[in-house]
Amino acid sequence: MAEKTFTKDELAKYNGQDGQPAYVAIKGVVYDVSGKAAWQGGKHHGNLAGQDLTDVLYNKSPHGDRVLQGLPVVGKLTD
User: Fold this and answer.
1) Total domains in the fold of the chain
2) Each residue of 23-76: pLDDT tens digit?
3) Which end of the chain is more exposed for a tag (fewer CB within 10 A), N or C?
């Protein structure tokens, strides 16, 4: 099965609202954060699912990329 690719507009649909899963992109990789309680409703500390959060994760988050471990990868973000 071919890997799913997402444009920014397509990724925005996966915002954790109205029954949609919550996806975020980090360094071009799209992760499913739906199963994380901290992302309930597609929101986490003012950040919204359906977006590229690379800058937030590496420049503003105290967690760093260790929070990505164990998250399902659902595809790649394209330009």
Assistant:
1) 1
2) 999 999 999 999 999 999 999 999 999 999 999 999 988 888 888 999 999 999
3) N
Residue-wise pLDDT for 26-38, tens only, equals 999 999 999 999 9
User: What range defines the domain where residue 20 resides?
Assistant: 5-74
Is position 65 within any domain?
yes
Query: C-alpha angle 29/49/6, rounded to 5°?
Result: 40
- What are the backbone dihedrals phi and psi of residue 18, each rounded to the nearest 5 degrees, phi first? 50, 40
Note the residue count of the chain: 79
Distance CA 56, CA 35 (A): 20
Q: What is the CATH number of the domain that holds 51?
A: 3.10.120.10
